[in-house]
Amino acid sequence: MYKIKYIGDPILRKKSADVDTFDDKFNTFLEEMTEIMYREDGIGLAAPQIGVSKNVVILDVGELVEDESLRIFINPKILSASGSSVIEEGCLSIPGVREEVTRPEIIELEFQDETGASYTHEFDGWLARVLQHEIDHLNGILFVDHISPVKRQLLINKKTIPEKY
Ligand code: CO
């Protein structure tokens, strides 16, 4: 019943709200969100991408990092960031586009798990990269906002992304 929202859909520009109820209904939502991520072959998914403006991020970088599997981040907040790395990104909401994006390499993150328990933890490498991409979604930001205006205009000219997005 949830479907992937694509670039141009206004919901991708909305700021999401914190989750404050960790009940069975919320857990069912997390299960459905997880199914969609795996079905769509994504390594990360933010709730707004399936039309739900809540601060929920899931990811699984198992195909890139050994011993990694599903991770769930509720109400994630980046406390600090350092370093810099350039990595090519893609997004389930922007099919057919892959572009290099520069972001901090290490982040300190405050978040809750699916039961509501709170954590503060440092992440680097692929986890830090995917987390920053997905947390951007919670703030209505898309990775193509981070590329150069010239590259972005080329994508619009080729109609790979809509003029108004
Ligand atoms: Co994305």
Task: Furnish the topology, listing elements before pairings.
Layout lengths: L23 H16 L4 E3 L9 E4 L11 E12 L2 E5 L9 E5 L2 E7 L5 E6 L1 H14 L10 H9 L8
The site of cobalt (II) ion (CO) has 4 residues, from helix 2.
How does this model look, in words?
- The protein contains 3 helices and 7 strands; from the N terminus they run αβββββββαα.
- The two termini are 24 Å apart.
- The strands form 2 sheets. A 5-stranded antiparallel sheet has the order 1-2-3-6-7.
- It has a single domain, classed as Peptide deformylase (Peptide Deformylase).
- The protein is α+β, with helices and mostly antiparallel strands and 165 residues long.
- The chain has helices spanning 24-39, 125-138, 149-157, and strands at 44-46, 56-59, 71-82, 85-89, 99-103, 106-112, 118-123.
- The mean pLDDT is 97.
- Strand 6 (106-112) and strand 7 form a beta hairpin.
- The site of cobalt (II) ion has 4 residues, from helix 2.
- Residues 91, 93, 133, 137 line the site of cobalt (II) ion (CO).
- For the largest sheet, list the strands in their spatial order: 1-2-3-6-7
By CATH, the superfamily comes out as Peptide deformylase
The secondary-structure element order is HEEEEEEEHH
Give the biggest sheet: 5 strands, antiparallel
Proportion in helices: 10-25%
Number of domains: 1
Radius of gyration: 15 Å
Under the CATH scheme, the architecture is Alpha-Beta Complex
Return the structural class.
alpha+beta
